[in-house]
Write a structure and sequence with these properties.
This protein has two helices and four strands, in the order βαββαβ. The chain has one domain: Alpha-Beta Plaits. A hairpin with a 2-residue loop joins strand 2 and strand 3. The chain has a four-stranded antiparallel sheet. Helix content is 31%, strand content 33%. By secondary structure, the chain is an alpha+beta fold.
Length: 95
Amino acid sequence: MAYGIVHYFPGGTREQYEAAVAAVHPSESSLPDGQIFHAAGPSDGGWTVMAVHDSKESWERFRDSTLMPRMQAGIDGGFATPPQETAVDIYKLMP
């Protein structure tokens, strides 16, 4: 079952997002293994990132092996604080 994650970064900016995504995605034109959707943009008072993985396990693998280690090490120019996170068991995913 697909699994979605929404990260909201209060006070976050496009520049911080660009720095963070460059550090955790394999390239600008590809997604991490298991990720099938990625969207990001400004939202009320900050920046929101939405991702859908093919499974919860895929998300956890990316989170534990790539995202968290790189964020904990510090990303130059990246987000200053951890995000507020919402997880979603995807019921329906339309192409």
